[in-house]
Specification:
This protein has 285 residues and is of the alpha+beta class. It is built from nine helices and 18 strands. The strands form four sheets. The chain has a seven-stranded mixed sheet with strand order 14-13-12-15-16-18-17, sandwiched between helices. A hairpin with a 5-residue loop joins strand 9 and strand 10. The radius of gyration is 21 Å and the shape is elongated. The protein starts with a strand and ends in a 7-residue tail after the last strand. The model has no long low-confidence stretch (mean pLDDT 93).
């Protein structure tokens, strides 16, 4: 993959107050590596030879909600105006995606990486296990599970999300031929193609109920039950939408439908804002 150099308000601000040369991290803090940027009167010269003009740097420095990147002589927003809305990478560490103003990860109480680890810790995939990650997003869940030795199949429906994942350096392991296989498609349909008892673990982190109600349905949960091995574990991220204001308990409904689908051991995991469940070891177990 082409090496991109990334600029956020942080790096742009540092360039604007520097003289001569400045060493900066240009991979959104994925590593501790630094690159040298040459400061000129009309802007800054990046390692690939791209000159970023001062007025562009000033614009980036004032935009705390967007990631920019330098490529082939130009500066671009890590953003896509698609048919279904406006998508962009947000410069949290690591980045999250914002779709029509809604962020895909929790970013207030925890950062996206800790949010991911909370979800994965709920089902603890181990060496040699096979994991289904139903809704890839930027792929942090799939990458974290693969780092623990699991083989991961991850599914993403939205081509705009896939494109931003390809831009995001924190998502690179999805596309480098490791222990992660990416499938583009609708999880509701894709799971029907898997053989029974194919997975040790399912991590289900769907969009909000209002956007993907079928992924909260008993019909879908029965498919997840079918493809799990006996004793297999499920984590289902639910969040707490509406609970604070309308006293609506989405988690309760999810738990009831999971039990009807055959799952046992259904319980809340508060730190991950979700629910865990498992498939019985044997009939009636």
């Amino acid at each position: 993959m082409e090496e991109l150099h990334y600029i956020t308000f942080r790096e742009a601000g540092m360039i604007l107050v520097s003289r001569g040369r400045v060493k900066l991290n240009l991979d959104l803090r994925k590593t501790s590596r630094t690159w040298e940027v040459e400061i000129r009167g009309d802007g800054a010269l990046f390692p690939d030879g791209t000159l970023v003009e001062r007025e562009v740097l000033e614009k980036i420095a004032s935009d705390k909600g967007t990631v920019y990147f330098v490529s082939n002589g130009g500066v671009y927003k890590a953003a896509i105006a698609g048919e279904t809305g406006f998508y962009k990478l947000v410069p949290t560490i690591p980045p999250t995606i914002e779709i029509n103003g809604v962020r895909m990860h929790r970013t207030k109480e925890v950062n996206p990486l800790q949010d991911t680890r909370n979800k994965v810790n709920a089902v603890k995939p181990t060496e040699g296990e096979t994991v289904l990650d139903t809704c890839m997003g930027l792929g942090y869940t799939a990458i974290e599970a693969s780092k623990r030795g699991a083989y991961v199949i991850t599914v993403e429906k939205d081509p705009n999300v896939l494109e931003l994942a390809r831009i995001n350096p924190w998502s690179r392991e999805l596309f480098t031929g490791g222990k992660v296989q990416v499938i583009q498609g609708d999880s509701f349909e894709v799971v029907k193609r898997f053989k029974p008892e194919s997975f040790d673990v399912v991590i289900h982190d769907p969009p909000r109920f209002s956007l993907a109600g079928q992924l909260y349905s008993e019909e879908f949960y029965r498919e997840l039950f079918r493809i799990l091995k006996p004793g297999g574990r499920l984590f289902h991220y639910v969040g707490n939408p509406g609970k604070k204001y309308r006293k609506k308990d989405l988690q309760k409904g999810v738990m009831e439908r999971l039990r009807r689908a055959g799952f046992v051991g259904v319980k809340r995991v508060e730190e991950a804002l979700g629910v865990v469940a498992r498939k019985p070891e044997r009939e009636g177990g």
